[in-house]
UniProtKB/TrEMBL annotation:
It comes from the Bacteria. One of its GO terms (biological process) is DNA transposition. The lineage of its organism: Bacteria, Pseudomonadati, Pseudomonadota, Gammaproteobacteria, Vibrionales. This is Putative transposase. Residues 9-95 form the Transposase zinc-binding domain. It holds the Pfam family Zn_Tnp_IS91.
Length: 348
């Protein structure tokens, strides 16, 4: 069992006395029952031999560290199939500290605005630069390496663009996409205007004049989406980074973003749990969104571009993620991947 889930089960009574949002309350309710038998069991049977087994059902909550590995593989598989055999960039849109209060109290409308504004910025910059068809994937992260609240959006953007009338792909510069300062300026102006126009969001009295938008080359796209998947589906803090639990205190390891050195942080157990739980996203908020050529509606056009580029490059797509890993499991008796789920028993 995950160390975080064990701590959550031990401290659930204490956390219930705190003022929790409905989303955090639902997350605690789900995760404290994950793989405990409270949700029921699944029966698995091997199609190649007589082996069968019963396993405790998982909660399936998107913030549960015990449930997310299959989702990681699924997302990587889907995104890898969308990759174009070209260079990619990662553009990061950061929210300044004075807006963190809105992120804690009005997360759903604020994050929705962040997605719409970041998408509009990237679309307009692409249109001004080349006028062709492009695309990108936006991914929401809410924490920094110390696991404090730090909302930001990562965009994975291909370097080139597609000219639809000529049916040609134009390669972009492998080292440069868009300048940082204009990106940050437009991001700031548009997000502030969107927040001002929203009926339930109110800006703080003072805001920094300079915001941070980072744009850097990441080579081929697969390493970038693998990096993002670790933060999307492994939970806010993996068990391997929790290095000590004693005296009602939890110590975890992280890498300092400036010095790149390994650091530790120690907190009383309830404070540690709330540090992690503050990153539970509002129900219904989609944290990964595809646009343009990477959107599901552009599948045929994207496939044609992939074939064209592959023919030119005489190579295959860099896909090395497993396919269909959770339709079957490996049988511990005969060793074949023929163990399938044949039934589920729910508690009455």
């Amino acid at each position: 069992m995950s160390a975080f889930i064990q701590l959550l089960q031990q401290q659930a009574g204490i956390l219930e006395t705190r003022h929790l949002t409905p989303d955090i309350g639902r997350a605690i309710f789900a995760m404290t029952r994950c793989r405990t038998g409270a949700l029921g069991t699944a029966q698995w049977a091997c199609q190649g031999c007589q082996y069968d087994e019963r396993t405790l059902l998982s909660c399936g909550h998107r913030h549960c560290p015990q449930c997310q590995h299959p989702h990681t593989v699924q997302w990587l598989q889907r995104q890898a199939l969308k990759l174009l055999p070209t260079s990619y960039f990662m553009v990061t849109f950061t929210l300044p500290a004075p807006l963190l209060h809105l992120a804690r109290t009005q997360a759903k409308p604020l994050y929705a605005l962040m997605f719409s504004v970041a998408a509009s910025v990237l679309k307009d910059f692409a249109q001004r630069k080349h006028g062709g068809d492009s695309g990108f994937t936006l991914v929401l992260h809410t924490h920094n390496r110390r696991r404090d609240m730090h909302p930001h959006l990562h965009a994975i953007v291909p370097a080139g663009f597609y000219h639809p009338s000529r049916r040609q792909w134009h390669k972009g510069n492998k080292q440069f996409l868009y300048p940082h300062a204009p990106l940050a300026s437009v991001w700031r102006a548009r997000l502030l205007a969107a927040i001002n126009a929203h009926p339930t969001l109110t800006l703080p009295p003072s805001l920094p004049a300079q915001w941070v938008v980072d744009c850097r080359a990441v080579g081929q796209g697969l390493p970038a989406i693998k990096y993002l998947s670790r933060y999307l589906y492994r939970g806010v803090l993996p068990d391997k980074d929790i290095i000590d639990i004693s005296d009602d205190q939890v110590t975890f390891r992280y890498t300092d973003s400036h010095t790149k050195q390994s650091m530790t942080r120690s907190l009383p157990t309830p404070y540690f749990l709330m540090l992690i739980l503050q990153h539970v996203l509002p129900k219904g908020l989609q944290r990964v969104r595809d646009y343009g050529l990477l959107h599901g509606s552009a599948k045929q056009k994207r496939h044609a571009i992939q074939l064209m580029l592959l023919h030119m490059a005489h190579r295959t797509l860099p896909i090395d993620v497993p396919v269909n890993v959770h339709t079957t499991r490996c049988c511990p008796t005969c060793g074949e991947r023929r163990l399938v789920c044949v039934g589920v028993a729910r508690p009455r």
